[in-house]
Amino acid sequence: MKNSTKQLVTSGIFVAIGLILPMVFHGMGGAGPVFLPMHIPVIMAGFFLSAPYALLVGIVTPILSALLTGMPPMFPVLPYMLVELAIYGVVTSLLSRKYKLNVYVSLIGAMICGRIASGMMVWILATFFMVGLPSPFLFIKGAVVTGIPGILIQLVFIPLVVMGVNKHTAVHRMDKTI
After folding, report:
1. Is the per-residue pLDDT at 2 higher than 90?
2. How many CB atoms lie within 10 A of CB 19?
3. Which InterPro entries match (predicted)?
4. Distance CA 170, CA 111 (A)
5. Residue ranges of the domains in the chain?
6. According to the model, what pLDDT value does residue 177 have?
7. How confident is the model over 108-143, as pLDDT tens digits?
8. Architecture of 2-177 per CATH?
9. Angle at 162 between CA 160 and CA 164, to 5 degrees
10. What is the DSSP string of 126-146?
């Protein structure tokens, strides 16, 4: 019970950060697609939460953001962004927490899986809903090229935070045992 409460509260914190951070970046002249601010808290949630909670953060964050701020637009952006973020959260959690892979492998693995999943969703939207989107390969290429600054931020910032929190937590645990 105690762990599930902690996971739920931590999930709420990551969702809140996922709502606030994009508003800050979009307030700087629409920098969201370049700096990918909603990705950061969702991916970080995967490092600190079990897979179901990380998945929940990846689903709830873009939905709440779309409802409360209009970002991302409900259609066609929300469906592929929701899939991408959900995959980021769950894959990060599985790779880092279940399979105990290092932070960089977990991060890059999640980033690749999330982009592939969003490309698949773009294909579904274009094929079955006749949405005028580029092919999945062009979409992924465009998202990666446009998001290079955000990807670089993720590759530097997220590992620093995760390793710093893990180091602090380990030291705190040692202090309790002494």
Report:
1. no
2. 19
3. ECF_trnsprt_substrate-spec (IPR024529)
4. 27
5. 2-177
6. 61
7. 999 999 999 999 999 999 999 988 889 999 999 998
8. Orthogonal Bundle (1.10)
9. 65
10. HHHS------HHHHHHHHHHH
